[in-house]
Amino acid sequence: MSKESSPFQKExxxxxxxxxxxxxxxxxxxxxxPLHTAHLEMQKMEQALAESEKKRIELEQRxxxxxxxxxxxKIVPHGLFWKDTHGTxxxxxxxxxxxxGLKHPDEIVGKxxxxxxxxxxxxxxxxxxxxxxxxxNQTVRHVITPFERSDGAHFWVDxxxxxxxxxxxxxxxxxxxxxxxxxxxxxxxxxxxxxAQYRAxxxxxxxxxxxxxxxxxSNGKPSDYRFLDVNPVFEEITGIPRSEWIGQTARxxxxxxxxxxxxxxxxxxxxxxxxRYEDYVKQQDRYYSVTAFCPxxxxxxIVSMDITEHRKAEELERIRRxxxxxxxxxxxxxxxxxxxxxxxxxxxxxxxxxxxxTRDEACGQKIQDLIFPQELRDAVTKTLQNLLxxxxxxxxxxxxxxxxxxxxxxxxxxxxxxxxxxENEGGVSIAMDVTEQKRLEDERKKLDVQMQQLQKLESLGVxxxxxxxxxxxxxxxxxxxxxxxxxxxxxxxxxxxxxxxxEAASRRAADLCNQMLAYSGKGRFVVESQNINQLIExxxxxxxxxxxxxxxxxxxxxxxxxxxxADVTQLRQLIMNLxxxxxxxxxxxxGIITISSGVMECGEKFLRxxxxxxxxxxxxxxxxxxxxxxxGIDENIQKRIFDPFFSTKFTGRGLxxxxxxxxxxxxxxxxxxxxxxxxxxxxxxxxxxLSNVEKKVSTELRTTKASVKTSNLGRIRILLVDDExxxxxxxxxxxxxxxxxxxxxxxxxxxxxxxxxxxxxxxAIILDLTMPRMDGExxxxxxxxxxxxxxxxxxxxxxxxxxxxxFEGQGLAGLxxxxxxxxxxxxxxxxxxxxxxx
Length: 838
What we know:
Helix content is 46%, strand content 24%.
């Protein structure tokens, strides 16, 4: 075997080695165990020392932090306090101590709100907040409330409270912040008040105010501005409500706005430099003074004041200053300025025109000595002195004397002149020449008298026409019955003679009615072109036979005169009445009656002077004049010579001159007379001249003829319509004796009923014009509706022209003028019915 160990030997060796190791290891353990225990104790001591050092360091750090916090609490300007969970103060800083009235913060430790003498209401208020913080574990922030200190001082405070917690988060108290915000509160109230005042001022200003912000482009250059607010006046001026302005831009509302204006507003908003200018709004025709200022950076406000009236006043004042001298010079009134000695200092052109003196001649002269007559100078001096003394003299009217001695009536207005210190400097007298005005006033008064006379005559004419119309109806019945009586009496009998006298008297009464109708303008009136000279010459024999042998009739007729439009019968009556009136004025004395004629151009002024006229138009007139050298007419009687029924002659006269005036007025002419006792009277009549003397005008009514055979008169039925029973009875009997069949109706209503029943048998209707219930015109139109070809004759006492114009173009057959006779009835019926023509 080898000397090397066998595996068994090797294993044995290894086990021996391990045993040795364990042995010795255990021995080491036994030796080292106390050391290990000591080491472990040492490690624990070292760890405890380390933790103690750490705590020391932390405590030192905490102390340092607490010192810093304490320092901060002392110097912080806010009032700070802290309480425990029972609401007891544990401390506060100096600021809080001062606020609640303590001298030192230490005084608060251990105190409660009640100890600080808070009011009961405040105690409940603060206690509630403490409970909310401590029990609710929540923070109360910024409670604003009034606070009254124990010494009576009042404050506004801002209180915030928050919970204090330990390391585990459990509440251990609360921390409060107590700030005096009285000054801030007052400032806020002042600000609110200021804003309210601003808003009130903004809203109630009489000027238009708008607030804007400037809009700049990318280069910072103002390019537009936006409306932020406008006041009510701005709304009223523009007519656009505030809501439509706010937020709008200027370029959108005013596309034509100039860039220079935006740049101006931009300068105001960015630099704060205000700007002022005037603006004219053409659409409103108003001027505005515009002020732009900067209330805030980037904004500007515009205040627009309407200065239109001020501008106009300035313009008027400018014009007044510039043109005052010119106005004074061009004034139609004399303007005279004088000093305290009454010497003239200023004298305008009108004064020269009225009084004749030049300015150089007048200045320096005493006003009362220059242009007033000697007898008025003392009175004028007294008037001017009273003016200076303030006791009167403002208005007066004096007769003045011009340079050439002419008397001028002037109305004066005087006023005193005072300097800025209210000292008298003299006065100004303004004179208006009222000479012509006075003449026109006298003329107007005369025209008023004429107008009153014309109105009086018009009223009398209406009365006379009404009386004549009614009287004609009576005369128609009288003449009709007289005619019937005459047919039944022996022509040689005494009764026949009496009836003839009744008929003659009735005809004279009818003539009187015709004169009354002529006066009223409602008589017969057939207008034709007439030559007055030929008419006078044709009446010469009749005129000579109508006047006294001691009166000489002399003609002075123009060679050629235009024709006039006139009724020849009424014109003859006018001439006859004037000549007879002149002859009666001459009476038993020798005298001359002159009839003259001519043509003249008449102006408006001429026609107004003392003429009884119908507002005649200027133009060519033919005049007729009848004058005498008789006794004349007394001035008191002249006012009544045209009154109907007034006469200085015997009873029964008195319609001569009134009839003349009525005829003149109906011919659209004018009458003027002049008379002087012992020297005679002249009547001058004007008639409008015709431009075409060849043309004749006639108002004869066109007739509607019916083809009726004269051999069958008894078959011709006439409907007579008249409201007067006497006329119906007499006229019916007359027409029956003429051979007609007559039916009567008392008014238009009955006439229509009869015609509707018997119309096919009625050949003609005689219709009264004036009736009750339904008058003649209404009846005529109603009959025309039934039968357009009906033959109607109007019976009336009015003139033919009135009736023809009333029924013009309506097919009136004829006119029967009241009072009518049997012969006149027969003539009209034969004419309209075509009787006698086989």
